[in-house]
UniProtKB/TrEMBL annotation:
Protein name, UniProt field: DNA polymerase/3'-5' exonuclease PolX
Domain DNA-directed DNA polymerase X: 1-313
Stored Pfam families: DNA_pol_B_thumb, HHH_5, HHH_8, PHP
Organism encoding this protein: Psychrobacillus glaciei
GO molecular function, one term: DNA-directed DNA polymerase activity
Length: 567
DNA sequence: GCCGTTTTCGGCCCGACTGTTTTCAGTCG
């Protein structure tokens, strides 16, 4: 049995145990064992002694060995015999955990969401100790809600909601400081909810104001330091607001940025020093609480460098601290190499795009409008492209502080041919090849198209290599590891498309590209000057894959970039 | 269930909120 399946089985065992109302530490021991396997880069065959791994003991080790040798786990089979599988989905109902579900099953033989619904409707549930009429109503409401609310919301859907909330918070005068936190701040592709930290001297007023100004469908909780609501926005989503005093702000921001695993690791570090981390500060052995000016000061207190939110993930970041200074940052970015103008489907003129890039302090940039094939995007014919090249070069005369390059985002056609002949391509400084059509072709055909582009000596880069839209469509399903091999062999750039719709390539592939030393360009693909800001999310997304400055084409000097594209 | 150069037993990250309670259990992040 492969490693992934074994990891999932351990997690499944934990779920079943949860439903039995098992000891929470026993349950987390199985989750921990799954995580230990996951974090270990080796394959199962390469691990000669599973039991030597910290976190895997006799019981979890036995399960792993069962799965390796007999393809099944006796423990899981036993659990599945005692716990009906219909209980699993009940864990999705907010307010219900393992213990309550176990009780419902034991006392009322409720073994599915449907059975639970009926028992609530016939008021059987309120007869149980620990349950009452209010709980019954809440369960019914949550069951009804279960289908309507998506489990995760994509980062590009969250962005406008976060903007809206930030505008509201700016208008509440009693709020001194605020920041989005949670997985959004860590640039996860999708999140379950939105978290905000608010620093204020008047928590009561802020709480009232929040409830007044936010578009609220439902108040989930409204305590002294925490307001939880469901927001009335296009795709309804929950938002948590944590209200703290200013001296607690840095600790609260750190705590609610997470991840959970990162926090647990930090707390273990503190505990070894006899200290206790909470969202309010660090409690010393004598009971006094240490506060921090910033997250940086918080980490420094534990002799750690500042760990950016983007890499606060599974805990493995603590073993890679020496790499932090090499990570790409927005300050390292010297140019943007994929953007559109009114010549095709962009909103601004070439000159307006240049001015916007100058304002960002870039030293060079590439204009890359669509090519002939993409009629819906007003793609440029050969003649228009040649005229555009001239226009760009003429415009260059106006500027000494930024160098303009003429490029194209050229389509790779469904039959695998390229939209421009070589004699046109060789007049361009920078050629991007992209797939925008016939996504459903078999992988073999898609790869043939990509190979035709990669092997063309005039092509410099493949844009948005998989064509995915986060949480919405998978793209054209190329064999990315092979694509990375080809890029390495032919010396081509792969793009990390920074538009939050795409973030393509995704992290796992970026890591592969890094291992293969394939250069990555982070590009905004801007169709409007406002979209040039996506460089920021692109860079932070790249940090999640631990991409170093030198592997990012946008950090190269103008001279190095010129050398690369002229070769 | 797992762990240990202060521990082989007694901890395991820590606190807020709700709903059920008369001091707390369960859930959540």
């Amino acid at each position: 049995m492969d490693k992934k399946t074994i990891i999932r089985t351990l997690e499944k065992i934990a779920l079943y145990m949860e439903l039995q109302g098992e000891n929470p530490f026993k349950i987390s021991a199985f989750r921990k064992a799954a995580q230990v396997l996951e974090l270990d880069a080796r394959s199962l065959a390469e691990m000669d002694n599973i039991l030597s791994l910290k976190g895997i003991g006799t019981a979890t080790g036995a399960v792993i060995e069962d799965l390796m040798n007999k393809e099944q786990s006796n423990l899981l089979l036993e659990l599945q015999n005692t716990v009906p599988s219909g209980l699993l989905p009940m864990l999705k109902i907010p307010g219900l955990g393992g213990k309550k579900i176990a009780k419902l099953y034991k006392e009322l033989q409720i073994d599915s969401i449907d059975a639970l619904k009926e028992a609530c409707e016939t008021k059987k549930v309120q007869s149980l100790a620990g349950f009452a009429a209010k709980t019954e109503e809440k369960i019914l409401a949550e069951i009804a809600n279960l289908q309507s609310k998506p489990e995760r919301t994509a980062v590009w859907q969250l962005e406008p909601i976060v903007d809206m909330i930030e505008r509201k918070l700016l208008n509440i005068p009693t709020i001194e400081k605020f920041s989005v936190a949670g997985s959004y701040r860590r640039v996860k592709e999708a999140s379950k909810d939105i978290d905000f930290i608010i620093g204020t001297n008047s928590p009561q007023e802020v709480r009232e104001e929040l409830l007044n100004v936010l578009p609220i469908i439902k108040i989930i909780a409204a305590g002294d330091t925490k307001v939880s609501v469901t927001l009335a926005v296009e795709n309804e989503i929950d938002a948590d607001f944590r209200i703290v005093e200013l001296h607690q702000y840095a600790s609260a921001l750190n705590h609610f940025t997470g991840s959970k695993d990162h926090n647990i690791k930090m707390r273990q570090i503190a505990k070894d020093l006899g200290k206790k981390i909470s969202e309010y500060g660090v409690e010393l052995e004598d009971g006094t609480v240490q506060h921090f000016e910033s997250e940086k000061a918080f980490y420094a207190y534990f002799d750690l460098p500042y760990i950016p939110p983007t890499v606060r993930e599974d805990g493995s970041e603590f073993s890679k601290l020496d790499q932090l200074p090499s990570l790409v940052t927005l300050d390292d970015i010297k140019g943007d190499f994929h953007m559109h103008t009114t010549w095709s489907d962009g909103a601004h003129s070439i000159e307006e795009m240049v001015e916007a890039c100058r304002a960002k302090g870039y030293s060079h940039m590439v204009i890359t409008d669509h090519s002939d094939y993409l009629k819906v995007a007003n793609g440029l014919s050969k003649e228009r492209l040649l005229r555009q090249i001239e226009t760009i070069y003429e415009l260059q005369a106006k500027y000494t502080d930024i160098e303009l390059f003429a490029g194209s985002e050229m389509d790779i056609l469904p039959d695998g041919s390229l939209d421009f002949e070589d004699e046109v391509l060789q007049q361009l400084d920078f050629v991007i090849a992209s797939i925008h059509s016939s996504f459903s072709q078999p992988q073999e055909k898609i790869m043939e198209r990509l190979f035709n582009a990669i092997k063309n000596p005039h092509v410099h880069m493949i844009a948005h290599p998989t064509g995915r839209i986060i949480e919405q469509r998978d793209g054209y399903n190329p064999d990315v590891p092979t694509l990375i091999e080809w890029a390495k062999e032919y010396g081509k750039i792969l793009e990390l498309n920074a538009n939050p719709y795409r973030l393509d390539l995704k992290t796992d592939y970026l890591k592969l590209a890094k291992e293969a030393s394939v250069p990555i360009a982070i590009n905004t693909d801007a169709h409007h000057i406002d979209q040039l800001k996506y460089m920021d999310i692109g860079v932070r997304y790249a940090q999640k894959a631990w991409l170093h400055k030198e592997s990012i084409v946008n950090t190269w000097t103008l001279e190095k970039f010129k050398q690369f594209i002229k070769k």
